[in-house]
Amino acid sequence: HSSMLRWGPPQTRLSCSSSPDLEKPPHSMLRHLTSKIKSTGPISVAEYMREVLTNPVTGYYVRNNMLGPDGDFITSPEISQIFGELLGVWIISEWMGAGRPKQLQLVELGPGKGSLASDILRVFSQLQSVLGEASVSLHLVEVSPTLSQLQAQNLTGNTSQEADSEDEPVYRRGKTTAGLPVCWYRRLDDVPTGFSVFVAHEFFDALPIHKFQRTEKGWREVMVDIDPEKPDHLRFVVTPSPTLASSTLVQADERRDHVEVCAEGGVIIQQLVRRITEDGGAALIADYGHDGTKTDTFRAFKGHQLHDVLASPGTADLTADVDFSYLRRMAGGGVACMGPVTQRTFLKNMGIDTRLQVLLRNCTDPNTRKQLISSYDMLTNRAKMGERFLFFSVLHQSRLAKPKKQDGLSLEKKKIPAQLPVAGFTELSFS
Ligand code: SAH
User: Fold this and answer.
1) CA of 239 relative to ligand 1 center, distance in Å
2) What is the DSSP letter of 23?
3) pLDDT averaged over consecutive 10-residue blocks of the chain (431 residues)?
4) 352 within some domain
5) Domain with 268 in it: what CATH number?
6) Where are the alpha helices (DSSP H) in 106-207?
7) What is the DSSP-derived secondary structure letter of residue 67?
8) Are residues 189 and 312 in the same domain?
9) Which residue has its alpha carbon closest to ligand 1 atom 14?
10) 274-305 pLDDT tens trace
């Protein structure tokens, strides 16, 4: 099969085969949605997306292993180990910037196959001398039982254990091969408090969005309804009057004619902000997105091809670009936000070129060398993932605070220690 990357322009193709799981049409999802619409009327796009992706029985993420060359899409951590390694360095740098707290919780939202966490932890063990006595633990927020098993396999080599009862906040726990504790949760709320660095890669784009259309009568919400001509088909409709969402989620000074708002993403950002403010830490969010400029980005991918978002729901991945300006607004003024900067800029600032050279120096196999170079190109090339993907960070207010000016005149100029720059968002200079 010739297949398209989820983020990519139509001409970017990878060779992939589609997952056999997805060939079975799960009509049960369509039936579930049509009976819901019949009983309560058209549903919001957010509800449609939430049901299709994370319904506990038939949801797309719950049933499938969609990641990688054999799935529906491929992501940066799956393309190259360098990606996770550089994020590992970023996390350690932020831990140092916070004054090396004794506890470091690494919390990943939507960890996919667990590759990113695994690459980050490898860097942690290589930099053990830097981390010293800090007690490190891994916390994974994942709704999909199928993916959590795959993560457990990759990170703990199948030594993890499922909780006895379904309503335990920690539904699985184990130890990594290096002996670090790992816990799995369905919701961020269940993760224990404490100094944490949060990582979310291609997580926010999977959260449900509301869609709004500007009309002559004002903002109206776009909903999903049954097509009256074809009862087995769904179609978009625009509500005749405002909905609660359309009257609360659209900005008063909005200039676009169509907007997508991910209210759930806003809630998660606020939870992160509260934790970072109260317990210290940082969040790194990487996804494809824009800074409040794009309009209609809701789309579906199946077998690496673009797919009709309303056709055979549950068999295709649904996604929308992340609006970073909305996340920044929801974060509020109590924290410091950095970015978004492009993936290319972030990875170059993190030293991807040097890392590539080191790996190439230690590698003689021509195929591996070729693969290292092509995956570097995939991640950083402006026409590939380099500019479509953006990095955004939420930091504790004190992280960027200017050192206080010293009172009074002192003849002897004291050197005030400068803050450690935030890696990735500024070019690091070694002087
Ligand atoms: N970060 C990984 C996977 C991205 S796919 C990578 O970059 O390769 C999205 C991930 O988020 C999957 O693991 C999916 O199961 C998870 N996910 C989607 N919606 C979620 C939600 N509402 N709560 C928790 N996890 C969710």
Assistant:
1) 30
2) G
3) 38 36 63 96 98 93 80 91 97 96 98 97 97 97 95 94 91 96 98 98 98 98 96 95 97 96 98 98 97 96 92 94 98 96 98 96 95 97 97 94 61 57 79 46
4) no
5) 3.40.50.150
6) 115-126, 128-131, 145-156
7) B
8) yes
9) 110
10) 999 999 999 999 999 999 999 999 999 998 89
Cβ–Cβ < 8 Å for 98, 280: yes
Q: Is 61 in the pocket of ligand 1 (CB under 6 A)?
A: yes
Domain match, 244 and 195 both: no
pLDDT at 68: 73
* Atom of ligand 1 lying closest to residue 108 CA: 1
- For the chain, what is the domain count? 2
Alpha carbon distances (Å) from 146 to 52, 56, 113: 16, 11, 10
pLDDT attached to residue 63:
81
Return the H-helix or E-strand segment holding 307.
Answer: strand 305-307
Choosing from 52, 61, 67, 390 the residue with most ligand 1 atoms within 8 A of its CB, the one to mutate for a pocket test is 61
Decide: 94 and 422 in contact? Cβ < 8 Å. Answer: yes
| Ligand 1 atom at shortest distance from the alpha carbon of 67 | 8
Residue 257 located in a structural domain:
yes
Question: pTM value?
Answer: 0.91
Q: Is the CB of 319 under 6 A from ligand 1?
A: no
Contacting residues for 354 by C-beta, under 8 A, at least 6 apart: none
- Tens digits of residue pLDDT in 55-106: 988 899 988 778 877 788 889 999 999 999 999 999 999 999 999 999 999 9
| Among 247, 250, 248, 270, CA closest to 260 | 250
Q: How far is the CA of 185 from the centre of ligand 1 (A)?
A: 12
Assigned token pair, 84: 């996770």
Do the domain assignments include residue 402? no
**How far, in Å, is the centroid of ligand 1 from the Cα of 112?**
6
The rounded distance, in Å, linking the Cα atoms of 246 and 257 is 13
Last residue of a domain, one of 218, 237, 261: 261
DSSP label at residue 99 = T
β-pairing, 210-215 with 258-261?
antiparallel
* Domain range for 156: 60-207+262-343+384-396
